[in-house]
Design a protein that fits this description.
Blueprint lengths: L23 E5 L13 H4 L1 H28 L4 H20 L22 E5 L13 H5 L1 H11 L7 H17 L4 H21 L21
Antiparallel strand pairs: 1-2
Helix pairs in contact: 2-3, 5-6, 5-7, 6-7
């Protein structure tokens, strides 16, 4: 009797299974129907989010301090604390995708730490079952420094809306004003820069031990290898 053939799955096609480049996933959906003028007032519309995020980030800092000692003594990042901090990063990304980090959607961001499936911007970080107790002592101030220099040029450091990303968003706003379209190449580059910064954020803020790759993965979706 011959063996039953194993069903082929999308992740097992070809010689090598596909896997994500990074445990950090940052994605968006390109929108061709953006308003020509709304971006001019988004700084006002986003104020309620910035106020809430101010308090959320205070919590983020305190939780990261607690998580540092948890990882140092146990090798684990407490899941509830991890989910909160990922939620703050996720919320921040949605706001900057709407506002001056990208200007890539006119849909107002939800007030939520959880992922919102039908919103056009998403961020997630795979939960690590174990983190190095030794790395936690050096990665956030020493090992991340070369990447942080790059991130500072891209987005002002531990942010989503400064540096080159903010400049690209401004140029995209001007293009929208005069043409009614967000230049696709500009969008893809902006996403790639944000993706790089998100990986640096996750590593420097102790959420992963996977060192950020020196690669610019542009476009809406995360690459796989």
């Amino acid at each position: 009797m011959s063996a039953t053939p194993t069903p082929t799955t999308p992740t097992s096609l070809g010689k090598h299974p596909v896997s994500p480049v990074s445990p950090v996933s940052l994605e968006g959906r390109y929108d061709t129907g953006l308003s020509r003028w709304l971006w001019l007032v988004k700084w006002v519309l986003a104020i309620p989010h910035y106020v809430v995020l101010l308090f959320l980030w205070i919590g983020f800092v305190l939780i990261t301090f607690v998580a540092f000692f948890a990882v140092l003594f146990t090798g684990r990042y407490p899941r509830l604390l991890f989910d909160y901090n990922v939620g703050v990063l996720r919320w921040s990304w949605r706001v900057e995708y709407y506002a001056y980090g990208s200007l890539a959607t006119d849909r107002y961001p939800p007030f939520a730490l959880a992922d919102v499936a039908d919103y056009p911007a998403h961020l997630d970080i795979a939960y690590p079952e174990h983190l190095s107790r030794g790395l936690v002592l050096v990665k956030s101030w020493l090992l991340v420094v070369p990447q942080l220099i790059v991130a500072a040029l891209m987005a002002g450091g531990y942010r989503f809306n400064g540096g080159l990303t903010g400049l690209l968003a401004f140029y995209a706003g001007v293009a929208l004003l005069f043409t009614g379209r967000y230049p696709r190449g500009m969008y893809d580059l902006n996403m790639g820069l944000h993706r790089w910064v998100a990986r640096v954020l996750a590593y420097g803020l102790l959420l992963t031990d996977v060192y950020p790759p020196y690669r610019l993965d542009q476009g809406e979706r995360e690459p796989v290898v």
